[in-house]
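Input/output pair, single chain:
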Amino acid sequence: MNLIKRLFPLIGLPLCSCVTFAADVPVKIIAFNDFHGQLEAPGSLRANAATATPTIPVGGVEWMAAYVDALKAQNPNNVVVSAGDLIGATPLISALFHDEPTIEAMNRLGLEFNAVGNHEFDEGRDELLRMQNGGCHPTDANTCQGAAVGTPVPFEGAQFAFLAANVQDIDSKKTLFPPYAIKTFGKARVAFIGMTLKETPTIVSPSGVSGLQFTDEAATVNALIPKLRARGVRAVVVLIHQGGTQPGVQAADTINSCSGNLAGTPIAPIVNALHDEVDLVISGHTHQAYNCQLKNKSGRFIPVTSANSIGRVLTDIDIAVNAKTGDITYINAQNKLVDRSATGVVPDAEIAAIVSKYRELAMPIANRVIGEITAAMPDSAANSAGESALGDVIADAQLQATALNGMGNAVVAFMNPGGIRAPGLLYTSSAAGEGDGKVTYGEVFTVQPFGNSLTTLTLTGEQVHILLEQQFTGCHAGNAPAQWNYPVSDVTGQSFNRVLQISSGFTYAWSANGPACDKVDPTTIKLNGVVIDPLMAYRITVNNFLADGGDKFYILAKGTQRLGGAQDVDALDAFFSNPLNDADNATPGVQIAPGLQNRIVRVN
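Output:
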């Protein structure tokens, strides 16, 4: 540890904006996170947090590439990195082709290292390995479209490295991907350690991470420091798919703020436990932009950054590495908008052409009108009880798809709110020009992009009650009723209230002031107006993610007599096309009239 690192915590300053020395090698790190396959521009960002207007047009991968090239031109010693969720939960233009378009675009943008995020595991280990190694999807004809879009055939795979220091095969104890990478800049060397959040198994489909274990983030990093020192590397950057939040609206004038200093958020204790050799943490997962200084294990402040999400922001980080000691002596980080309105910025033509050709392939599917709505159903419009009009519709669609004899015989469907993605269903016409109120397949795919399939299973009435209790914070094995009979390892409790959306005919009431594991009055849990019987068996429908205990709804993993069904997006497509759901028989086409059904009641 050099003198500067020892002195800076003593004088109360972070290792940032200090002088460089003759032996220092300047290096530029260009970072982003949570891209989620957003090849096309996602829209705009507020210019300032105080007002909704004006806004600044941001994003688009060809614009990202232009900004990356401009930053690279400032320093030949450069590297482009990502803090995870590069793929997964992607728009149709990427997801239809199993995210091959995103990988191909990132190859041409110049990405070098990507720390795997939880969404990289959405389609499982084998598919993630294919993203790295290349080759065509084993079953889907939409794979390997290179001949049509101008990329190699078969699919080339990532020309950058996936990093996963804390993701190990349970049997071999080997990491799924390399734990770190070292890049040399002249006489200086910098290590990049990549990780995802250890809670990944609770937020992705368990089948996607079967056979893998996710270890503690800080402990994993700290254990690697002696190995890096043995290789003569003292400059260490952590790329981690875990992050923090700060209060207030995300806007152009807040992307470099650090309100609250991320206190009480998941990233803070991780940074606080990191070895003093770590100089910089590039984070993600929470889709926020911030530029912070947090104390490490030795009490020294180190920069912690995040670049919002879906290509709207890049983090421009300048560091200096002492060629003699190997230590980082200077760090300055700035989040910068990917501003499409800026003069002199020319989007990358090669990437733009690839995106355009994939758009042409996807357009006939994306622009197919499947129905109509009489008003908008935004994803964020839940009431105080946790119920939303869009959630009601999705749960109704899943029940409709599985209620018939032979299709599951379901009597109720539950939908996890995290599986309903922004922006929801908007009333105004999209750029495709389908018309106000018209709903396209591309729009419902955006709402449900995970490709989950429906599963119908059997729970007792008592297990349904347990499912409802597992929605709320504080309910874990230590305070669960004895008859639940759960080992401690099975129930850890929600970190925030996660209210499931429910289908028509099912109702209940919950109390915010009720004790943990006892917030739902069992006498209010009714199916078609009749209180459910704790001993009776009920057929319920959920997606496969929930069915395996995802989002900490562990009781669902105990469901019996399982029957697989259609994909969730196809169930929603069918619901919008079914004349039985038409709210207006006076006009052609099926119209859905959204509105809260008060299926969930909050009593205080």
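The first helix runs from residue 3 to 11. The radius of gyration is 25 Å.
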